[in-house]
Amino acid sequence: METASKISIEAQAHLHVAIIMDGNGRWARARGLPRGAGHRKGVEALRQVVETAPELGISHLTLYSFSSENWRRPPAEVRDLMGLLRFHLRSEAERLNQNNVRLRVIGDRAALSSDIVDLIDNVETETRDNTGLTMVMALNYGGRAAIAAAARRMAEQVAAGLLDPRAIDPDSFGGALETADLPPPDLLIRTGGEQRVSNFLLWEMAYTEFVFFDTFWPDFGGRDLERAVSEFRGRERRFGAVGV
Ligand code: IPE
Ligand code: IPE
Ligand code: MG
To answer: Has this prediction a pTM greater than 0.85?
Structure first.
């Protein structure tokens, strides 16, 4: 009995949950507030989710924070989002350390301003040895761009005579992605009512289970996360094989 429950807890303790945190703007509009107010409230929701995640057996939490397409928004909103990011990166390092959270950032840093890149480097270094939750922030991230970058890296190795093209397969290709050291997401949550992927972890989500919420991201809380995880646990994952 004791052994069985131990095994089931262990089996649950390595979940990778990815979240498309959507609906900040609509949350604000519904209240007659500027979109920025929704983004600020969204950061509070994020804090709560990060704190609840480990209790649910989540070891990795990947958060879509700014997509490579979000530059298409009005410049004032982009500035607002970047300002919020700066503030968050400056103020959160200590809290992340207190919670034993390791921060990783994925996405193309080249287009981010240099002070933000420095802040990212600092927080990644300061939290590197934390052994609790791994929080992955996708910033200026696009799934297609990530795949193209991996293809470019492999092509460069082939051109340099370091790689035999016949050695390119899903395993080695996955190893060339910047997410190579992360497990693939088990569960994707998208809030805000839309049911699409919006160029998030395209390669990595080949067998991810999706759970959608109509709730706008600023209203999302620990309870909702728990609901999504419990729905996930009720699913049968077959990975192309025959069910039990
Ligand atoms: C998600 O909320 C946050 C980011 C994309 C940065 P949105 O800003 O997309 O909110 P909606 O979808 O317009 O409501
Ligand atoms: C996806 O949301 C990106 C983030 C949550 C950071 P969007 O609001 O940008 O996606 P679309 O435009 O509705 O597909
Ligand atoms: Mg949106």
So the answer is: yes
